[in-house]
Amino acid sequence: MIPVLLATIVALLPLASAHIALWHPSMYGFNVTQQTFPYDNRPVAPLQDFSFDQWWFHGHLDFPPNDGDIFPLPAGQAATAELGCNKGVTSFFASSEGRTDVSQGDNPCPSDDGSFPSGAMHTTGFDDLTGCALAIAYESDVHKIKPEDFTVFSVNQTCVWTKNTDFQVPERMPPCPEGGCHCAWFWIHAPDSGSEQNYMNGFRCNITGSASDVPLAKPQVPRRCGADPQHGKPDATPGNCTYGAKQPFYWFQKEQNNMFEDAFAPPFYTDLYNFKDGAQDDIFQDSYPNGIPAPIPEQTVVPTPVLNPGAASSTPTAPSSSTSAPQGHPSALFRGGNGKARGGKNDARSLKTIRDLRQKQKISR
Ligand SMILES: *[C@@H]1O[C@H](CO)[C@@H](O)[C@H](O)[C@H]1NC(C)=O
Ligand SMILES: *[C@@H]1O[C@H](CO)[C@@H](O)[C@H](O)[C@H]1NC(C)=O
Ligand SMILES: *[C@@H]1O[C@H](CO)[C@@H](O)[C@H](O)[C@H]1NC(C)=O
Ligand SMILES: *[C@@H]1O[C@H](CO)[C@@H](O)[C@H](O)[C@H]1NC(C)=O
């Protein structure tokens, strides 16, 4: 009896053909099912080769959240999002197709045969994760938002490994306008299993506990600048990075792409495009008081962000063995060990100097 029942529940869930979405009542398309559109446009369906209206907000603008449903983002703290291949694995299972809680702990997509990671996660293992991102637009009217208005403010480089996924919210996020902001979750997975797929789920969001009024800078298109050994680039090219506020990747659609990489070299929310793990603390109008030089591979001037203006001391701090700077990230090497920006005049550093610094940091650890 019990096995029969379980089999029935599993059969009700279209898990096999599913992928991953961010689930929350504040999202557009919260109740969209396989039957709502003439094609499978569930929030978990991947987006590729679509017209703008089809991919933007997942084509769910006519399926807005209920009034008052808004995703709170506490400035300076973590917000936990639920990622899953079916609403049934999230705390919102009651309005899922099966109306049943089919969660298995923190597993974003329990598979029929018990294997992990399931196909929907599109990864061969933990070392093959490519990160996902939350972006924000300071606009309460969803119809006014354009793709170039979204700024990535938080990255989790190890998603989609767990259902409950933390996103660190930068401490200096300014308050949202009356009526709130709009956010979206973005993910592009590793090319191993089904390549050119994009994911976007839009939702209403609001910054809470804000303590800063400095607006976000105008977001620029991210650039490929991290070590990329699979494509013949063993070393990072920090001068080629986009620094500061960055747009999400819009890739492999019929219209309005900002990324043109081929199917075997997708753009990722990792160091590969200068998206450091966690809060994107350098996205504000005052983050780079000395400006940002034009990014090109030969660029040797790497800009120094001032992450906490007012609190930053004018005395340059020597690199230390502190672990507060994220390791392996190009710009981490240009900050003092306390995470504060260092003074201006030594901005230009060759890759050799970077390696020497890294070596010293290793030794002093
Ligand atoms: C989604 O469905 C649930 C249950 O049927 C309902 O209570 C809720 O209002 C719906 N939400 C939206 C945004 O349509
Ligand atoms: C990414 O999410 C996981 C799971 O919630 C969490 O353990 C990890 O700390 C998060 N990473 C960052 C940088 O917040
Ligand atoms: C957003 O959060 C702020 C601060 O908590 C609050 O005053 C405001 O009413 C919220 N906006 C919405 C639309 O919920
Ligand atoms: C620099 O960035 C551009 C844009 O992303 C990319 O096409 C190019 O391959 C990168 N060059 C190097 C040397 O990393």
From TrEMBL:
Keywords, alphabetical: Copper, Disulfide bond, Glycoprotein, Metal-binding, Monooxygenase, Oxidoreductase, Secreted, Signal
Region (Disordered): 97-116, 291-365
Cofactor(s) needed for function: Cu(2+)
Source taxon at top rank: Eukaryota
Main localization (coarse): secreted
Compartmental location: Secreted
Segment forming the signal sequence: 1-18
One GO cellular component, as annotated: extracellular region
Basic and acidic residues compositional bias, start-end: 344-359
Amino acid composition bias (Low complexity), ranges on this chain: 311-326
GO MF annotations in UniProt: metal ion binding; monooxygenase activity
Protein name: Uncharacterized protein
